[in-house]
Amino acid sequence: MTGSKILMFALLLGALWRLDEYTACFALRGYTVKASDPVLERRLWEVFPSKSLRFWPSFLKQSQELKVFLERKLPVLVQTEMRTLGRFVTFLNWLNPWLRVEWRGQLWCVSREGRMWDAEDPDMRVPEGGAHEGPLWRLAIMTEEQGQLPGGVFPSPFPLDKIDDFLSDYQPHAWFEGVQEISWERRGGEDLFRLKLLRGSQVFEILIQKDKYKGQELGGMLDDILVRLSKEGGSHVVDATYEGKIILKELSTGAQEGSLK
Predict the structure, then answer these.
(1) Same domain, 69 and 110
(2) pLDDT at 79
(3) Domain check: are 147 and 234 in the same one?
(4) Which residue has the higher pLDDT, 111 or 261?
(5) Whole-angstrom Cα distance, residue 218 to residue 226?
(6) Are 183 and 120 in the same domain?
(7) The whole model's pTM is what?
(8) Other beta carbons less than 10 A from residue 204's beta carbon
(9) Domain boundary among 55, 75, 93
(10) Would the pLDDT of 32 be above 70?
(11) Residues 44 and 108 both lie in one domain
């Protein structure tokens, strides 16, 4: 081997050594996954960007892409933090179903974060501890066909602030525990909430238009009315869609009705 070739070979080895030293400085120095469920951690490692192991600055961007991908595929909340230079920790937690919603012939879960997913998809089921307990919402205001049903996890198309306001007014009352279904409809251009409530063998249908009464005032009135009707027996309609009065009817056809001021 001539002197020039030996020199070129030495320079090449030096360049490779310096390159390895440079990339080692930017190798991922530490990565921790804190998941509420081992299933979530396994899912993350299946899609982890391996290139980030050699060059941690790229993980600053790829961690956001990882978040977007996982949060579209699963009902999870993903958050990644850089604790020190080149050291990261990722938190993964299942979303808690807040509402059960019947929409376009399917059953959906909605989280408080406003994300929605197919409640009957086996890949989307959260652990039993996070299962939703509460009434089924039927959103008649959103019955129009709007193209293909979305897949994965997506932003809720429903105005959740109105649902939150409704629940804040009525959920604290004891009678609300018996509510099985809530249908959100429109009547005369105004929101109408139709509640199906069970108490033993009795069935109650409660009609509420929020602009007719203040929520706390009506909630307390319904406490008294339902206690009285429970003693009388039978099933009843409680219509609170009129200003200044609540109309009471038997649920069966052709029944008499009364009013409670």
Answers:
(1) no
(2) 96
(3) yes
(4) 111
(5) 12
(6) yes
(7) 0.79
(8) 23
(9) 93
(10) yes
(11) no
State which residues form the domain around 80.
3-93
| Rounded-to-integer distance, Cα 111 and Cα 156, Å | 9
Residue that finishes a domain, picked among 93, 122, 153: 93
Give the total number of structural domains in the chain: 2
Structure tokens at 195: 């509640």
Q: Identify the residue with better confidence: 136 or 55.
A: 136
Query: What is the per-residue pLDDT across 122-139, written as a single tens digit (0 to 9) for each?
Result: 888 887 655 567 899 998
